[in-house]
Amino acid sequence: MTGEERRDSIITNLRIAQKPLSASSLAKEFGVSRQVIVQDIALLRANGSEIYATNRGYLLMSKSSRPQRVFKVFHTEEQTREEMQCIVDLGGRIEDIFIFHRVYGVVRGDLHIASRKDVDDFMKLMAGSESRPLSDATSGYHYHTVSAEQESTLDLIFEELGNRGFLAGLQDYEPVNFWETK
User: Fold this and answer.
1) Closest Cα partner for 100 from 178, 43, 2?
2) For the chain, how many structural domains are there in total?
3) CA dist., res. 82 & res. 116, Å (int)
4) Quick one: which residues bind Ni(2+) (predicted)?
5) Is residue 72 domain-shared with residue 136, that is, in the same domain?
6) Burial grade of 45 (CB within 10 A; 0-12, 13-18, 19 or more)
7) Annotated binding site for Ni(2+)
């Protein structure tokens, strides 16, 4: 198999994967080293593939019409599990977490959490780490990009987050479009 054929196969595998694929698992599948896979991913990214690295492996971000919405939320660290489970139980996928810091600007981390198992895995990672949640930098205020199969699901998530007191209003100093390039 040539390098180009392997990279085409990597894209195919990422496209059909239901969860992130690690470089080690891809290396084993293709009979190459992990470093070769890392280099392949770099080449694919350089050629325009939207491949994201998470702590669980690589994900291909498809250009789908799946609706997304950004929610600004506030809660304590102890309420993290409840907030995440609320979103996934209603059919949402938590794509990321980000904060808007007055000094640092937007600071973002990919999550890709779509189930209670994903929530449990995330909570175990945080519990086993000395790292603090990103939202600690902004006293519990943060944002999630949430995707769902339908806009109506995002409406339900918005309503339930509000009912549980997790929604927070935007301040005057916060930008409306966090992803706009200058």
Assistant:
1) 178
2) 2
3) 10
4) 75, 83, 142, 144
5) yes
6) middle
7) 75, 83, 142, 144
Residues 73 and 53 in one domain: no
Range of the domain at 50: 3-60
**Are 86 and 166 contacting, i.e. CB atoms less than 8 angstroms apart?**
yes
Tell me how far apart the alpha carbons of residues 159 and 102 are, in angstroms, rounded to a whole number. 28
User: Residue 38: is its pLDDT beyond 70?
Assistant: yes
Asked if 7 and 48 touch (Cβ cutoff 8 Å), the reply is: no
Q: Write down the residue that tokens 């918005």 correspond to.
A: 158
DSSP H or E segment with residue 139: none
Binding-site residues sit at 75, 83, 142, 144
Average pLDDT, the chain: 88
Q: Which amino acid is at 21?
A: L
Return the closest-CA partner of residue 112 out of 53, 170, 152: 53
User: Measured between alpha carbons, how far is 107 from 122 in angstroms, rounded to an integer?
Assistant: 19
Q: What sign for the dihedral angle of Cα 138, 139, 140, 141?
A: negative
Q: What is the DSSP letter of 74?
A: E
| Statement to judge: residues 46 and 82 lie in one domain | no
- According to DSSP, the residues that pair with 142 across neighbouring strands are 73
The beta-strand segments (E) located in 9-134 are 51-54, 57-60, 68-74, 93-101, 105-113
The single-letter code of the amino acid at 127 is A
Q: What is the mean pLDDT of residues 82-100?
A: 95
SS3 44: helix
